[in-house]
């Protein structure tokens, strides 16, 4: 008995008995909506029309196609891009589904997902994007139960507290790298209100305070963190023997304290030098006024003195001595007959015009 094999609808038998593929009809599906052409352009056109798929692509520029592709989840680079072409909002079912996935589960689970995503951004050194994810995690924890975030028992609250602490301390790291030092202090302060023994918060707070030149506060924060960091930590080798090695955390706090002390000494030395200079300048002015009064020289003060560079009245060689110094002052010589003038920056009171 001969065997009869049924062929599929896409195949047909040729005259030679071999199966050949039946050509499929052209598809009417298009990747993009076809933009209608103006009536005048259609009447004036003499070229044959393109297939619908090609015509849909030719209807848009490259920038418009890229913008429409980014609305597709496969090519999307930003989940917040929900606007349609020409700036109009359109319903995007796939996008709404992806957004809903972000907020599935308890508040702790949602926030944990954002925190993990932020950690991935930090590993890629994308601190600005990581900061946004940590912020979303914090906002997810603050969502009310009416928005679909159920409130759990004490264990769930403890989990939320741990995730909140991690989001804040990690966002502080991002703000630190972005040089948002005051935002760093805000985040670390929130962490320390939750857990005063968080050493990372103390460390990052000290770094931010050091960058703001608030050395006394930075030293206090570093000292508190140093007290929390253990000097050594136990390690286990291949022979299951436990040994104690210096703690990297403790060493980091020691290095930071050295930096703070060095910066504090430099700043204090500069402040003391500036104070001495101000006191010396004040004493020189008092001595100069006394010398002018002793010589009967009148001085007129003005709120807008002329710019004479270094041409000023002074006592030399010692500006603080009335007896061992000679008064020097600038002199302007006018020659009206010749319409000329001379300016001498420094003339001693003991000099004679003939010399």
Account of the 3D structure:
With 355 residues, this protein is mainly alpha-helical. The protein has helices spanning 39-44, 52-58, 62-69, 93-102, 107-123, 127-141, 154-177, 181-194, 199-211, 215-228, 248-294, and strands at residues 11-13, 19-21, 232-236, 242-246, 314-316, 326-335, 340-348. The strands form 3 sheets. The protein has a 3-stranded antiparallel β-sheet. Strand 3 (232-236) and strand 4 form a beta hairpin. Helix 9 packs antiparallel against helix 10 (215-228) and helix 10 (215-228) runs antiparallel to helix 11 (248-294). Residues 1-17, 82-89 and 145-149 have low confidence and may be disordered.
From the helix content, strand content and strand pairing, which structural class follows?
A: mainly alpha
Provide the helix percentage: 40-55%
Q: What is the averaged pLDDT score?
A: 79
Q: Name the shape in a single word.
A: flat
Distance between the termini: 144 Å
Please give the largest β-sheet.
3 strands, antiparallel
Radius of gyration: 40 Å
* Series of H and E elements: EEHHHHHHHHHHEEHEEE
Major sheet strand order: 5-6-7
Beta strand count = 7
Beta-strand residue fraction:
5-15%
Poorly predicted sequence stretches spanning 5 or more consecutive residues: 1-17, 82-89, 145-149
- The total of helices stands at 11
């Amino acid at each position: 008995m001969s065997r009869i094999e049924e062929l599929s609808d896409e195949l047909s038998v040729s005259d030679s008995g071999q199966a050949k593929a039946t050509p499929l009809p052209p598809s009417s599906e298009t990747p993009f909506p076809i933009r209608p052409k103006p009536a005048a352009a259609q009447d004036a056109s003499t070229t044959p029309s393109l297939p619908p798929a090609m015509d849909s692509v030719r209807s848009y520029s490259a920038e418009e196609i890229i913008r429409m592709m980014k609305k597709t989840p496969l090519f999307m680079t930003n989940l917040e891009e929900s606007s349609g072409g020409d700036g109009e909002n359109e319903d995007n079912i796939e996008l709404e589904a992806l957004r809903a996935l972000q907020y599935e589960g308890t508040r702790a689970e949602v926030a944990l997902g954002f925190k993990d995503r932020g950690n991935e951004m930090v590993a890629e050194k994308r601190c600005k994007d990581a900061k946004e994810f940590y912020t979303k995690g914090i906002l997810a924890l603050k969502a009310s139960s009416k928005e679909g975030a159920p409130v759990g028992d004490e264990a769930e609250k403890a989990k939320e507290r741990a995730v909140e602490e991690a989001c804040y301390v990690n966002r502080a790291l991002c703000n630190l790298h972005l040089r948002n030092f005051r935002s760093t202090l805000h985040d670390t302060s929130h962490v320390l209100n939750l857990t005063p023994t968080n050493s990372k918060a103390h460390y990052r707070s000290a770094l931010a305070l050091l960058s703001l030149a608030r050395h006394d506060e930075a030293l206090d924060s570093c000292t508190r963190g140093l007290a929390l960091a253990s000097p050594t930590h136990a390690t286990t080798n291949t022979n299951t023997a436990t040994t104690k090695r210096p703690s990297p955390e403790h060493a980091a706090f020691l290095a930071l304290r050295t930096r703070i002390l060095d910066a504090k000494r430099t700043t204090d030395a500069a402040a003391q030098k500036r104070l001495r200079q101000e006191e010396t300048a004040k004493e020189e002015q008092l001595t100069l006024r006394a010398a002018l009064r002793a010589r009967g020289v009148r001085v007129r003060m003005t709120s807008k003195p002329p710019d004479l560079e270094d041409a000023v009245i002074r006592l030399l060689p010692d500006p603080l001595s009335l007896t061992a110094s000679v008064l020097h002052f600038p002199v302007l010589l006018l020659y009206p007959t010749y319409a000329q003038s001379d300016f001498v920056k420094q003339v001693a009171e003991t000099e004679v015009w003939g010399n």
